[in-house]
Write a sequence for this structure.
């Protein structure tokens, strides 16, 4: 794992999105943990090792906003990037810090946001 740029968890109920994001992140040198639901992630042993979380907003069961709230309690300071195919409005902090992406999104822009999050450049409260 010494060659990894970080462990990125991806949560999306769309298998195609999950697979394509995993491929993109792995090609950029990240270790990927992919989950088809928030509950699958929360019930896994991956939570302590995650360096960044990418989650879809619109999922059955627990949505991305709720997953972010739960993860912020479990892992304070963990960077979370939200993705959506819907028309949710990002909060000002997310928009300011490039933490909200609408599908289809630019893969390079997402990789840049992950890099900034992992480097701690956004200094979110």
């Amino acid at each position: 794992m010494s060659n990894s740029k970080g462990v990125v968890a991806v949560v999306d109920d769309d298998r195609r999105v999950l697979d394509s994001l995993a491929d993109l992140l792995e090609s950029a040198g990240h270790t990927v943990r992919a989950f088809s639901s928030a509950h699958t992630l929360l019930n896994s042993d991956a939570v302590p090792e995650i360096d960044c979380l990418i989650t879809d907003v619109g999922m059955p069961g627990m949505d991305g906003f709720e997953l972010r709230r739960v993860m912020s309690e479990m892992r304070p300071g963990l960077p979370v990037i939200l993705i959506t195919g819907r028309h949710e409005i990002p909060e000002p902090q997310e928009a300011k810090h490039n933490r909200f992406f609408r599908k289809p999104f630019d893969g390079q822009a997402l990789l840049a946001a992950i890099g900034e999050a992992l480097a701690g450049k956004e200094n979110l409260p």
Remarks:
- The domain at 7-119 is CATH 3.40.50.2300 (Rossmann fold).
- The first helix runs from residue 15 to 27.
- The chain has a mean pLDDT of 87.
